[in-house]
Design brief:
This protein is an alpha+beta fold. Helix content is 29%, strand content 33%. Strands 2-1-10-9-3-4-5-11-15 form a 9-stranded mixed β-sheet, with helices on both faces.
Length: 413
């Protein structure tokens, strides 16, 4: 994203998490409980769960509002693929079940414009569905009927096919106008997987965050679904479910606001443990034998994880983590070796080795330093410093003997 923006001529690019952008917009708006908007706004020390429920993934964060509109991140959950598109997919699977996958695929290939209109109809019907809706009526494009007839050698009617599929209680086809009626119970089944996944994720976040949360803030396009909202309200009767006005654009508007309010997130919880790749003196019976290497006349254990930040640790903007180490470089063949400093991360709280599969480590940043023309000094002291930014780390390296300073940046969102 950064490279594309730079190539397009944009400067000063800043990344922001979608739930954070949505929250920044939402806390400035009148709140909506059910169908009623109020002039009330969240005050300082309010804790809430914000659920960004869009078409693809569903992302959730727990925030606390501080003074002057600043936010503290208390908990963050990774996204789950239960957004509105998954419901559209269920509708499409139903139509493939009725007309046949070959019919729908041929319709898509031969009539792409009509297929797009059909997808738009599915989206509109999905958004209009409410708890009180008795049935949804779809107008089946004539082209689907024509393709179905051309591929149906037995001339079986759609009515008979629906009966064979045991869908007659939820699906009814009317030849007059090519109308397909889906009963309320049938439509609910198409929503179930998505809605149940969202509610399960909310339940897990509310439990895992261990915070006293009174509000759930709903943003994103799919959050505008009346049926989804009502199901969430039923699942959490003791919490206030807040609907953000114009929630479909909350992320976009919040991102614009974030550009004018730098550092509005004052604290975050690290999603990973971060540490440096370290070669430590090898200890028999302690270090794995497969990591033993020989250097400067001694045995070393390569890839020890030197932890600087633990998973779940609270990080504040500008916070620094430093580690100073000493190395010997006396052998002539080592004087001109390239120096590497790398930062690694793991979802575990206490990983031990960067290269051990069980520790689930991955490299996220690296600084490469070429040897000076005269070669490295016999004794060297390094200072590695990790600096917390708003959405990224800055990694700095200082070689005391040469005065060489280098740095690189990497995202930690």
């Amino acid at each position: 994203m950064r490279k594309a923006a730079k190539k397009a001529g944009l400067k000063g690019i800043k990344l922001i998490l979608e739930p954070e952008a949505a929250a920044l917009y939402a806390i400035e708006q009148p709140l909506c409980l059910g169908k009623e908007f109020t002039a009330e706004r969240f005050g300082p020390h309010t804790k809430y769960l914000v659920a960004d429920i869009g078409g693809g993934t569903v992302d959730m964060c727990v925030h606390e509002i501080l003074n002057k509109g600043k936010l503290r991140e208390l908990f963050r959950a990774t996204g789950c693929d239960a957004g509105g598109c998954s419901v559209n997919h269920e509708f499409l699977l139903l139509f493939k079940n009725i007309f046949g996958a070959s019919t729908i695929d041929t319709f898509r290939q031969k009539y792409p414009h009509k297929y797009h209109e059909f997808e738009t109809q599915i989206e509109q019907k999905k958004c209009s569905f409410e708890q009180k809706t008795k049935a949804l009526t779809f107008i089946v494009p004539t082209e689907i009927i024509d393709v179905y007839k051309s591929q149906n050698e037995e001339n079986e009617t759609l009515e008979n096919l629906i009966s064979k599929l045991h869908l007659e209680d939820t699906v009814e086809f009317k030849r007059n106008g090519n109308r397909l009626h889906l009963s309320s119970s049938g439509v609910r089944k198409l929503f179930d997987s998505s809605v149940n996944s969202i509610i399960a994720r909310m339940t897990a976040v509310l439990t895992d965050s261990k915070e006293n949360i009174k509000f759930i803030l709903l943003v994103g396009g799919y959050s505008q679904s009346d049926y989804l909202r009502s199901r969430i309200e039923e699942a959490f009767p003791d919490l206030k479910i807040i609907h953000v006005e114009d929630g479909r654009l909350a992320v976009v508007k919040g991102a614009v606001m974030a550009a004018k309010r730098p550092h509005f997130i004052t604290e975050r919880r690290s999603q990973f443990s971060y540490g440096f790749y370290l070669n430590a003196k090898f200890e028999e019976g302690v270090h794995p034998g497969r990591f033993k290497v020989h250097f400067e006349g001694e045995h070393w254990c390569k890839g020890v994880f030197k932890k600087m930040i633990g998973a779940g640790q609270v990080l504040t903007y500008g916070q620094q983590f430093s580690w100073e180490s000493h190395e010997t470089c006396k052998e002539p063949e080592n004087k001109h070796l390239t120096l590497y400093t790398s930062l690694w991360r793991s979802p575990l709280k206490n990983p031990t080795y960067c290269l051990l599969e069980e520790d689930q480590c991955e490299e996220v940043g690296k600084i490469t330093v070429a040897a000076p023309p005269e070669g490295w000094p016999d004794e060297m002291n390094y200072v590695r410093t990790l600096i917390v930014g708003e959405t990224e780390f800055t990694l700095k390296l200082l070689i005391k003997e040469t005065g060489k300073k280098l740095k690189c940046a990497m995202d930690f969102l």
